[in-house]
Amino acid sequence: HPLLYHLGVEQLQLLIDDLKAVGLDGIEAIYSTYTTGEEQLVKRIAKENDLLISGGSDFHGENKPAIKLGTGRGHLYIPYSVLADIKARAGK
User: Is the dihedral of CA 16, 20, 24, 25 positive or negative?
Assistant: First the structure.
């Protein structure tokens, strides 16, 4: 949840630069508490940094029966294309 650190965009970029240097290749851009604007911001940052996007539904199994894999609270929906892009980058 990159925005939950409450960093400014410049600080977040510095963190991404540091993490990319040690292997970062994706960032969580889809999350249930993000506004549409926040989601778009993280997706833009991901694109500018050639990072994959991922999504967090907070699915942890049967202990959270209201949350299903790929969907979550509010408007959250993680499209299959997110997984397809990850598989493509991994060569699978």
Answer: positive
Residues in contact with 74: Cβ distance below 8 Å, sequence separation at least 6, in sequence order: 32, 33
- Give the domain CATH number at 61: 3.20.20.140
Contact predicate 38/3, CB 8 Å: yes
For residue range 11-69, list pLDDT tens digits in order.
Answer: 999 999 999 999 999 999 998 888 889 999 999 999 999 999 998 877 777 777 777 77
Domain count for the chain: 1
Containing structural domain, residue 6: 2-90
